[in-house]
TrEMBL record, chain A:
InterPro entries: Aminotransferase_I/II_large (IPR004839), Kynurenine-oxoglutarate_AT (IPR051326), PyrdxlP-dep_Trfase (IPR015424), PyrdxlP-dep_Trfase_major (IPR015421), PyrdxlP-dep_Trfase_small (IPR015422). The lineage of its organism: Eukaryota, Metazoa, Chordata, Craniata, Vertebrata. Pathway: Amino-acid degradation; L-kynurenine degradation; kynurenate from L-kynurenine: step 1/2. The keyword RNA-binding does not apply. PANTHER family: FI04487P (PTHR43807), KYNURENINE--OXOGLUTARATE TRANSAMINASE 3 (PTHR43807:SF6). Homodimer. GO terms for biological process: L-kynurenine catabolic process. Catalyzes the irreversible transamination of the L-tryptophan metabolite L-kynurenine to form kynurenic acid (KA), an intermediate in the tryptophan catabolic pathway which is also a broad spectrum antagonist of the three ionotropic excitatory amino acid receptors among others. May catalyze the beta-elimination of S-conjugates and Se-conjugates of L-(seleno)cysteine, resulting in the cleavage of the C-S or C-Se bond. Residues 12-334 form the Aminotransferase class I/classII large domain. This is Kynurenine--oxoglutarate transaminase 3. It comes from Vidua chalybeata.
From TrEMBL, chain B:
Its EC number is 2.6.1.64, 2.6.1.7, 4.4.1.13. Residues 41-422 form the Aminotransferase class I/classII large domain. Pfam families: Aminotran_1_2 (PF00155). This is Kynurenine--oxoglutarate transaminase 1. It catalyses: 3-phenylpyruvate + L-glutamine = 2-oxoglutaramate + L-phenylalanine; an S-substituted L-cysteine + H2O = a thiol + pyruvate + NH4(+); L-kynurenine + 2-oxoglutarate = kynurenate + L-glutamate + H2O. InterPro entries: Aminotransferase_I/II_large, Kynurenine-oxoglutarate_AT, PyrdxlP-dep_Trfase, PyrdxlP-dep_Trfase_major, PyrdxlP-dep_Trfase_small. Pathway: Amino-acid degradation; L-kynurenine degradation; kynurenate from L-kynurenine: step 1/2. GO terms for cellular component: cytosol; mitochondrion. The gene is Kyat1. The keyword tRNA-binding does not apply. Keywords: Aminotransferase, Cytoplasm, Lyase, Pyridoxal phosphate, Transferase. GO terms for biological process: kynurenine metabolic process.
Length: 380, 436
C-alpha cells in the first residue's frame, strides 16, 4: 500500500508493484465481453465456485496432478489467491499454532498468520555462493536449520514456488526435504503456486501436493490474475482434499459468500480453450512464459549495463537486483530505514524508476541480510 | 524410513480446523439453493432478480471492455477504484448532508457481505456483545461468533391490526423497554437492517431515534445494513440512522451495487462512515482480500454517475425500480391472499413473508423433530409443488427457531411470467385441497 502511492505518479516508470502492463490475451477479454450480454450471469452463482469454472479447474489440474479432483468438494474459488491464503489461514490456523514462513516472503503471509492468532516462525533462504548470486537457484534452505524450526506446535509451513520475490523454482529434492518434515511432524503445507506456469527453460514446476503423503496435507493455491495476466479480475482458487477444503468453504460462506459471476464464467471459458490445447506449445500456459523469458533476459541485460547485479530468476515475473555495486551513499538520509528502502526512494526521486525494497519481504531480524536487494517486475 | 511408509496416505491426525469455525459451519443457503436448483419450477427463494440489470449498467461494462484500456484488467486502488469511491462520496454527501472524503470515508468491498465481515472483524472482539434484531439476515450471527463476539437477540413482535386486515411489516415492532434491557456494558454494537430482510420493515424515524438514543447513551456502534435503501414503497421514506444526532461518528453504513442495480452477481458493495471506524475496516480488508475486481467497479461507478445526474427525476433507476417492484409486490400479495395464505405487506425490500397456515395439513407435524416446521414445509413445497421459498426460521437464532412455525419468505424481484407461474401453482394447489 505504501509504495503504490509513491509510484502513482505517471512520470515514474513503475517496475515495483507486481502487475502486468501487457494486455491479457484477446480471447480472455472477448469471453468477458460475451458474458456481459448474458442476463442470468449477472446474478449470484454457486458460493464455493461457479460450476463451469470449478469443472474447468478440476480438468486442468487433474491433468497436471495425475489424480482425480472433485470440482465440488476439492476446490474453492476465492477473491484472488490472496483470498485463498486468507481462507486457508482462517480455516486451519489459530492461537497457539506456529506457522513456518520462508524469507523473503510475499508480505501478506505474516499479518495473515498474526491475524489468525498464530506465531510466524521465519527461516531465510540463504545464498550459496557467499553473497555472489547470479541465479535464483543459488538461494537455498539449510535442511538442518529448517528441521529445527519444526516442533509440536507447528501447524503449517507456507511454501511459495515459483517464489516471489527471488524467482526460485524449488527442485524435487528441495520439496522432498520439506515434505519429509511435514509428514514427520504431521504438519500442513500451504502451497502458494500462483506463478506455476511462469517457469523458464531448464526448470520444471513441481507441485508438492503430488509427492507421496502430501496430497492429504496440502492446500494448493492458484491465481487467474497471474495465469492470464488479469490481476484486476481477482479470482483465485484453493485445491486440496475435501476434509481440508470444507473448512475453507466454511470461512468463505462467512466472509464474502460468492465471487463475481461474469468474471468466473469468462475465466471458465478461457480455461476450456487452453485445456483443449494443453499438449500444444501455443497454449497460453506455455506461450506466456516464453514471452516473459525474453523480457527477463532483456531486463537482466539492461541492469547489468547500468552496473547492477541482477539475480536471474528461474520462474515468476520478478527479479531481485543487488544495488550495492553502485555504492550510492545514503548515510545522510534517515538512518532508521533499511538501505534498500532509502535506495528505492532515492531512485524514484532521482532516476524516475520505482522498484520494491527486498526488506519489505522479510521478518524484522532478517532485514539486514537482504537490504542490498531491490525487486523489479518485468511483466511489462 | 519405517514411519514414512505408515503415514503415506494419512490425513492430519490432530484436529485440523480452527476453533473460530465452531458453530458457524451450517448454512441454510447451501442447502436451499441446492434444493431450488434440483426441484424448483418457480424460484421465489434466494434473493436475486430474475430480470436483467438495467441496460445502462451492462452497457457501461461493455464500454469499459471495448474501450481499449487494458489496465482495467489489472489491480486498481485497494480500498476502492477512484471513480467509484468518488461518485459514492458525492452521492452520500447529498443523502447525508455532510462532506465526505472518498479516500477515507468510503471503502469498496466484495458485496455488502464482505463489508459486514470487515465490520465485525474490525470492531468486535472476544467478550463483546452485539445486538441483533430478529428476524435477521442470517449471516450476522455466524459473523459475530467468528469474531469472538456474543450475539444478543431482540425480537420484532407482531401487533396484528384489530380490523382483521392483512398485517404490514410496520406492525412488527421492537418493544422499547425490551430493547433497552439488551444494552449492557459489554455491548459493542447493534446491527440494524433497514429496510429489513426478511420482513420488509422500513424503520420509522421514531423507531430509529429510539435506537440512536440507546447507542449514544451506552456508547455503542451501529452497523447499518442498508442494502435495500432504494426499495421503499407507498411513498415511505428510508431514513439513514447515521443522519440522526450523535450517530455519524458511531455508524458504518453498508450498501450494495447488487441490490441497487439488480446485479447481485457483480459482488460490489461498500462501507461509508467516519475515518476513525473505516481505518480499521481498511486494515481487515488489506489483510483478507486486498483488492476488489476493477472492471465491475468501473461499470458501477458509471451507473452511479448516471443516477447522480438523474437524481429524483422520473427516469432515475432509483425511482423506476421501486415503482416496478411495488407492482410486483401487490401482485404477489393478491395471489397469496387469494389462496388463503396471509402475506405481511412489506414496506420495503423485495421480500415478503406469508403465513401458510391453511396449507399446513399437507405437511403433518413431526413431534420432537430437530427441524423447525416451516423448514420442513418449505422443503416439501419445493419438492412437491416446484415452488421455492425460504422458511422464516432461517432468520432466527437457534433458540428462537420455533417461535413462529407458519411463515415462509418469498422474493418478488421476478419477471411477470415468474410471478404468474407462482400464482398458477398456488391456485392449483388450493383447488387440490378444496377437492380432496
Amino acid at each position: 500500500v505504501e509504495f503504490t502511492k509513491v509510484a502513482a505518479d505517471p512520470s515514474i516508470v513503475n517496475l515495483g508493484q507486481g502487475l502486468p502492463d501487457i494486455s491479457p490475451p484477446s480471447y480472455v477479454k472477448e469471453e468477458l465481453a460475451k458474458v456481459a450480454a448474458v442476463d442470468r450471469l449477472n446474478q449470484y452463482t454457486r458460493g464455493f465456485g461457479h460450476p463451469s469454472l470449478v469443472k474447468a479447474l478440476s480438468q486442468v489440474y487433474e491433468k497436471v496432478c495425475g489424480r482425480k479432483i472433485d470440482p465440488l468438494t476439492d476446490i474453492l474459488v476465492t477473491v484472488g489467491a490472496y483470498g485463498s491464503l486468507f481462507s486457508t489461514i482462517q480455516a486451519l490456523i489459530e492461537e497457539g499454532d506456529e506457522v513456518i514462513i520462508i524469507e523473503p516472503f510475499y508480505d501478506c503471509y505474516e499479518p495473515m498468520v498474526k491475524m489468525a492468532g498464530a506465531k510466524p516462525v521465519f527461516i531465510p533462504l540463504r545464498c550459496k555462493n557467499d553473497g555472489n548470486s547470479a541465479s535464483s537457484a543459488d538461494w537455498v534452505l539449510d535442511p538442518a536449520e529448517l528441521a529445527n524450526k519444526f516442533n509440536s506446535k507447528t501447524k503449517a509451513i507456507i511454501l511459495n514456488t515459483p517464489h516471489n520475490p527471488i524467482g526460485k523454482v524449488f527442485t524435487l529434492e528441495e520439496l522432498q526435504v520439506i515434505a519429509d518434515l511435514c509428514i514427520k511432524h504431521d504438519t500442513l503445507c500451504i502451497s502458494d503456486e500462483v506463478y506455476e506456469w511462469l517457469v523458464y527453460k531448464g526448470n520444471k514446476h513441481i507441485k508438492i501436493a503430488t509427492l507421496p503423503g502430501m496430497w492429504e496435507r496440502t492446500v494448493t493455491i492458484g491465481s487467474a490474475g497471474k495465469t492470464y495476466s488479469v490481476t484486476g479480475w481477482k479470482l483465485g482458487w484453493s485445491i486440496g482434499p475435501e476434509y481440508l477444503i470444507k473448512h475453507l468453504q466454511v470461512v468463505h460462506q462467512n466472509t464474502l459468500y460468492t465471487c463475481p459471476t461474469p468474471l468466473q464464467e469468462a475465466l471458465a471459458q478461457a480455461f476450456w480453450m487452453d485445456y483443449k490445447r494443453m499438449d500444444d506449445p501455443d497454449c497460453y500456459f506455455y506461450s506466456l512464459s516464453r514471452e516473459l523469458e525474453s523480457k527477463r533476459d532483456r531486463m537482466a541485460q539492461l541492469l547489468k549495463e547500468a552496473g547492477l547485479k541482477p539475480v536471474i530468476p528461474d520462474g515468476g515475473y520478478f527479479m531481485i537486483v543487488d544495488v550495492s555495486t553502485l555504492n550510492v551513499d545514503l548515510s545522510d538520509v534517515d538512518e532508521k530505514q533499511p538501505y534498500d528502502y532509502k535506495f528505492v526512494k532515492w531512485m524514484i526521486a532521482s532516476k524516475k524508476l520505482s522498484a520494491i525494497p527486498l526488506s519489505a519481504f522479510c521478518g524484522l531480524e532478517t532485514k539486514k541480510q537482504f537490504e542490498k536487494y531491490i525487486r523489479f517486475c518485468f511483466i511489462k | 524410513t519405517h514411519f514414512l511408509s505408515h503415514s503415506l496416505q494419512a490425513k492430519m491426525s490432530r484436529p485440523v480446523q480452527a476453533r473460530r469455525l465452531e458453530g458457524i459451519d451450517k448454512n441454510i443457503w447451501v442447502e436451499f439453493v441446492k434444493l431450488a436448483a434440483t426441484y424448483s419450477k418457480v424460484n421465489l427463494g434466494q434473493g436475486f432478480p430474475d430480470f436483467p440489470p438495467p441496460d445502462f449498467l451492462t452497457e457501461a461494462l461493455t464500454r469499459a471492455l471495448g474501450g481499449g484500456n487494458h489496465m482495467l484488467h489489472q489491480y486498481t486502488r485497494a480500498f476502492g477504484h477512484p471513480p467509484l469511491v468518488k461518485v459514492l462520496a458525492q452521492f452520500f454527501e447529498k443523502l447525508l448532508g455532510r462532506d465526505l472524503d472518498p479516500m477515507t470515508n468510503v471503502m469498496v468491498t466484495v458485496g455488502a457481505y464482505q463489508a459486514l465481515f470487515c465490520c465485525f472483524q474490525a470492531l468486535v472482539d472476544e467478550g463483546d456483545e452485539v445486538i441483533i434484531i430478529e428476524p435477521f439476515f442470517d449471516c450476522y450471527e455466524p459473523m459475530v461468533k467468528m469474531a469472538g463476539g456474543t450475539p444478543v437477540f431482540v425480537p420484532l413482535r407482531p401487533n396484528p391490526p384489530k380490523d382483521g386486515k392483512l398485517m404490514s411489516s410496520a406492525d412488527w415492532q421492537l418493544d422499547p423497554a425490551e430493547l433497552a434491557s439488551k444494552f449492557s456494558e459489554r455491548t459493542k454494537a447493534i446491527v440494524l437492517n433497514s429496510p429489513n430482510n426478511p420482513l420488509g420493515k422500513v424503520f420509522s424515524h421514531g423507531e430509529l431515534g429510539l435506537i440512536a438514543e440507546l447507542c449514544v447513551k451506552h456508547d455503542v456502534l451501529c452497523i447499518s445494513d442498508e442494502v435495500y435503501e432504494w426499495l421503499v414503497y407507498d411513498g415511505k421514506q428510508h431514513t439513514r440512522i447515521a443522519s440522526l444526532p450523535g450517530m455519524w461518528d458511531r455508524t458504518v453504513i453498508i450498501g450494495s451495487a447488487g441490490k441497487t442495480f439488480s446485479a447481485t452477481g457483480w459482488k460490489v458493495g461498500w462501507a461509508v462512515g467516519p475515518d476513525r471506524l473505516l481505518q480499521h475496516l481498511r486494515t481487515v480488508h488489506q489483510n483478507s482480500v486486498y483488492h476488489c475486481a476493477t472492471i465491475a467497479q468501473e461499470a458501477v461507478a458509471q451507473g452511479f454517475q448516471r443516477e447522480l445526474m438523474l437524481y429524483g427525476k422520473p427516469e432515475s433507476y432509483f425511482v423506476q425500480l421501486p415503482k416496478e417492484l411495488q407492482q410486483k409486490r401487490d401482485w404477489l400479495v393478491q395471489s397469496l391472499d387469494g389462496v388463503g395464505m396471509k402475506p405481511i405487506i412489506p414496506e420495503g425490500t423485495y421480500f415478503l413473508v406469508a403465513d401458510i397456515s391453511p396449507f399446513k395439513s399437507d405437511v403433518p407435524d413431526v413431534p420432537n423433530s430437530d427441524e423447525p416446521y416451516d423448514s420442513r414445509f418449505a422443503k416439501w413445497m419445493v419438492k412437491n409443488k416446484g415452488l421455492a421459498a425460504i422458511p422464516l426460521s432461517a432468520f432466527y437464532s437457534e433458540a428462537h427457531k420455533n417461535n413462529y412455525t407458519n411463515f415462509i419468505r418469498f422474493c418478488f424481484a421476478k419477471e411477470e411470467a415468474t410471478l404468474k407461474a407462482a400464482s398458477d401453482i398456488l391456485q392449483k394447489w388450493k383447488q387440490e385441497k378444496n377437492s380432496s
